[in-house]
Design goal:
The structure holds 2 protein chains of 2 kinds. Chain A is an all-alpha fold. The radius of gyration of chain A is 21 Å and the shape is globular. The two termini of chain A are about 40 Å apart. In chain A, helix 1 crosses helix 11, helix 9 runs antiparallel to helix 11 and helix 9 packs antiparallel against helix 14. Chain A has one domain. Chain A has 14 helices and no strands. Chain B is an all-alpha fold. Chain B folds into 2 domains: about 110 residues, Four Helix Bundle (Hemerythrin (Met), subunit A) (Up-down Bundle), CATH 1.20.120; about 40 residues. Chain B contains 7 helices and no strands. In chain B, helix 2 packs antiparallel against helix 3 and helix 3 runs antiparallel to helix 4. The longest helix of chain B is centred in the first third of the chain and has 27 residues. Chain B is globular and about 55 Å long. The N terminus of chain B is likely disordered. Classes of the chains: A mainly alpha, B mainly alpha. Chains A and B meet through helix 1, helix 4, helix 5 and helix 6 of A and helix 1, helix 2, helix 3 and helix 4 of B.
């Protein structure tokens, strides 16, 4: 047990740095592993090979490239809104990661005395990124950008609903909104009286898990839901006019948000930072709330996040794009009714058992 | 907002109180400034974005008061839904970049008079009712559990009535929007 007393401001700065540490390095890892390498192997090519062994320093080279580029402002653009838009998108990502627990004591503001709205807070701040996208689309003074921004807004509003409704099932089953509470509810859960695996909610909430993954795919505007940035129709949608560092910020926002949503999905459905109870029982002296889990927890979360982001990129590179009306119909006529039925059934079973 | 949220973990000490007060005045300054800019700006989208700042500042004041659930609901409903729809609508219909001349009109003085009158009435009644009340020294952040218990026991009838009202509004909107 480490007992360090920190002043309020020291703790605040430490937590801000921790936020950067959780958001940026995993984003780099997934971009290299999946976006650069995995897709290359799926398409029978090598991908980046020159920068570092197996091209592992390609990302550094990319960042150097983007940093050198000129920060172009279109002549008719609304300069302030145009400049601010990428930061609004990133703010939503950084607020999102605050509530995710990575160990018994490792949650930036989701701890014992912290925010206990937990997952509700995460869902609320995730919708802020839409505002940044609309700002970017409008301020660019370009028809492609405006259309991309409007498409993105329509899509994100439509898929926000099934996302929230899919989470409600988990919240009903766990009986709490707190992310830490959802983790321990899954750890202490039992499947037909057998507690060796706990009760990870992707078993009981399988429908919710599927709806959550589909909605996340749409929220991130990844293929097959990539109409807002459809390159064959809209150049790159709301990002068309951006270049240099501001484009890089959008890029980081997109992939970091993918990771953060994977962290959230891992917490809600795969048991979070905890490992199955039988593994904990095998090592004498180890308890689920012992301090060692502040070190094991982040590693477990990274593994679960990599599993889930693998699915995101796998789907991204194998499915063709939806049409705009198909996308809206799928959200409103398929996903939302199913998730409403899921909530009703979960509530009913919760009362019966 | 982040720093204010972080402050929730510790009980309100002398420093904590000082931080809360500083942040309250900062946020209030931002809110009032953005509200003034919102009515004086000459661009519709800018006005909507200033309104966004005002609503976020209101959410931040809720956080300082320890009303976490209200703050998060404010963000989800007003920032995530209402403002996005408003921006969406404005951008679909009239979204010129740069200043517009026809945003101002003759009734602005009457409008200003009404606003000042509203401020006077509401300020007076608030001061009259709560002017001398002080926040308890050991004020704790409001937890979600007690709120939901209240809603689903004491206030269950108004809650259900509200949800029926919203459902009626939803159906009404669908009926109005349908062409056939």
């Amino acid at each position: 047990m480490i007992a360090i007393e920190l002043a309020y401001w020291q703790e605040a700065i430490l937590k801000l740095l921790l936020g950067f540490a959780i958001v940026l390095p995993p984003a780099g890892i997934t971009v290299y592993l999946y976006l650069f390498k995995m897709v290359s192997f799926m398409q029978s090519r090598l991908g980046p090979m020159e920068a570092g062994p197996y091209g592992s320093l390609q990302l550094v080279a990319e960042i150097g490239k983007w940093a050198q580029k000129e920060d172009i402002f279109p002549t008719k653009a609304d300069r302030f809104v145009y400049a601010a838009a990428p930061f609004v998108v990133l703010i939503s990502t950084f607020l999102l990661v605050l509530v995710v627990p990575f160990g018994p004591d490792l949650a930036i503001i989701g701890g014992e005395n912290g925010v206990d709205t937990g997952i509700f807070f995460a869902l609320a701040v995730s919708s802020i990124s839409v505002i940044g996208i609309l700002m970017a689309g409008w301020a660019s003074a370009s028809k492609y950008s405006l259309l991309g921004g409007l498409r993105a807004a329509g899509q994100l509003i439509a898929y926000e609903l099934p996302l929230v409704l899919a989470v409600v099932g988990v919240v009903i089953q766990a009986g709490t909104l707190s992310m830490q509470g959802i983790v321990s509810a899954q750890y202490e859960g039992e499947i037909f009286g057998f507690g060796g695996f706990g009760n990870p909610y992707f078993l009981t909430q399988f429908v919710g898990f599927m709806i959550f993954l589909i909605s996340v795919q749409a929220e991130l505007a990844q293929a097959p839901f990539d109409m807002p940035v459809a390159e064959s129709e809209l150049v790159t949608g709301y990002m068309t006019e951006y270049s240099g560092m501001r484009f890089l910020l959008f890029f980081i926002g997109e992939f970091a948000t993918a990771n953060v949503f994977a962290f959230i999905a891992a917490t809600l459905f795969l048991g979070g930072w905890a490992v199955p109870p039988f593994l904990v029982d095998m090592i004498p002296g180890l308890e689920i709330d012992s301090w060692a889990f502040n070190l094991i927890g982040p590693a477990v979360m990274i593994v679960k996040m990599l599993l889930l982001t693998f699915v995101v990129y796998w789907v991204r590179f194998t499915f063709p794009r939806f049409r705009e009306d198909q996308l809206q119909r799928f959200a409103w006529k398929v996903l939302i009714p199913i998730s409403l039925v899921n909530i009703a059934v979960t509530g009913l079973l919760k009362v019966v058992f | 907002m982040i720093v204010a949220l972080l402050a929730q973990g510790t009980p309100l000490t002398e420093t904590g109180l000082w931080i809360a007060n500083t942040f309250f005045y900062l946020i209030a300054f931002v809110a009032v400034g953005a509200a003034l800019k919102m009515v004086t700006t000459s661009n519709v989208v800018h006005a909507a974005l200033y309104l966004l700042v005002v609503l976020s500042a209101v959410a931040a004041t809720y956080v300082i008061l320890g009303a976490e659930f209200a703050a998060v609901t404010q963000v989800l409903v007003y920032l995530g839904a209402v403002m996005v729809l408003l921006l969406f609508g404005v951008m679909l219909t009239r979204a010129k970049i740069g200043a517009e001349d026809d945003l101002d009109h003759e009734q602005r003085w009457i409008g200003g008079l009404v606003a000042v009158g509203m401020l006077a009435v509401m300020g007076y009644s608030l001061l009259e009712a709560y002017g001398s009340t002080q926040l308890p020294a050991d004020m704790q952040p409001q937890r979600v559990g007690p709120i939901s218990d209240e809603i689903f026991s004491t206030y269950i009838v108004p809650f259900e009535a509200l949800s029926v009202l919203l459902l009626a509004a939803l159906i009404g909107a669908v009926v109005v929007a349908r062409r056939d």
